[in-house]
Automatic annotation (TrEMBL):
<keyword id="KW-0418">Kinase</keyword>
<feature type="domain" description="Carbohydrate kinase PfkB">
    <location>
        <begin position="7"/>
        <end position="291"/>
    </location>
</feature>
<feature type="region of interest" description="Disordered">
    <location>
        <begin position="288"/>
        <end position="311"/>
    </location>
</feature>
<comment type="similarity">
    <text>Belongs to the carbohydrate kinase PfkB family.</text>
</comment>
<keyword id="KW-0547">Nucleotide-binding</keyword>
<dbReference type="InterPro" id="IPR050306">
    <property type="entry name" value="PfkB_Carbo_kinase"/>
</dbReference>
<keyword id="KW-0067">ATP-binding</keyword>
<dbReference type="GO" id="GO:0016301">
    <property type="term" value="F:kinase activity"/>
</dbReference>
<dbReference type="InterPro" id="IPR029056">
    <property type="entry name" value="Ribokinase-like"/>
</dbReference>
<protein>
    <submittedName>
        <fullName>Carbohydrate kinase</fullName>
    </submittedName>
</protein>
<dbReference type="InterPro" id="IPR011611">
    <property type="entry name" value="PfkB_dom"/>
</dbReference>
<dbReference type="Pfam" id="PF00294">
    <property type="entry name" value="PfkB"/>
</dbReference>
<dbReference type="InterPro" id="IPR002173">
    <property type="entry name" value="Carboh/pur_kinase_PfkB_CS"/>
</dbReference>
<keyword id="KW-0808">Transferase</keyword>
Amino acid sequence: MSPRFLVIGEALIDVVDRDGELSRHVGGSPLNVAFGLGRLGVRTVFATEFGNDADGAAIAAHLASAGVEIARTDDGSRPTSTALARIGADGSASYEFDIDWTFRTAPSIDDVHAVHVGSIGAFRAPGGPRVLELIESLPSDVLVGFDPNIRPALMPSREESRRLVERFAARATIVKLSDEDAEWLYPGRADEVPGILLAQGARLIAITRGAEGSTLHSPGASVHVPARPTVAVDTIGAGDAYMSGLLAAIAAPSGMVTALEELTAADLAAIGRMAATSAAITVGRAGAMPPTADELERAERAPNDPPPSGL
């Protein structure tokens, strides 16, 4: 039986402003990771909350299209959360959020091999502390992925956010964060972040650096993985597609890879290439549309070809 992932966090609607033209897309960092895992053929449950409204129906349909099971953590009485995303000339996105996160009803962890959490759902009260409590209560054999995906306007102070990141890292197996996340959390000390989080207990740290690629670190090795060349349409969901590719890379048909304590430089490079390819495919098309398993496999087989741009 293939591994079963539980992803926990916010679901929302991205209202995208591109040169004054507005469009609506399903979004939210943890949702994008769950959706990406589903499209890669990983059995995935997404614990989230959204309203009993048209936006909520769009979220449910979007997740169903990737075969993702939904475990709702509230009653749906509040409107679905939104984020206004303004797209710059270079494809980068800036955000304004209208979001609530309660995590009133914790999902079942029966038959769950791995749990991923991050972003607003890991930090924003009242739900964030409940999520951390669940993560810290997980059995030791459950793999944990964590992506802080820093949103300063929606998070506690820098000092409190850093404390929470280190608590999550103490239970996490895999931590992924951007270089901007690292710099915000540890001003002037971003280069020290992999060592800091490995010392907390994490076994694999990935730092993404946009077009400069990513660096992956284990207790015994570090590698740099170049970004795969692509023509960027927008960067919405790029980091999330990297995260879903990273998580999928450590899953095997027979179950979770267990030798994370002994990851070599070659192991890190292979994991990082799969994650980078997933991100490249995603930024090459509008919206957070990560690759399918077939698209990723074809792109991995032809590393010198441009990544696919279709849906």
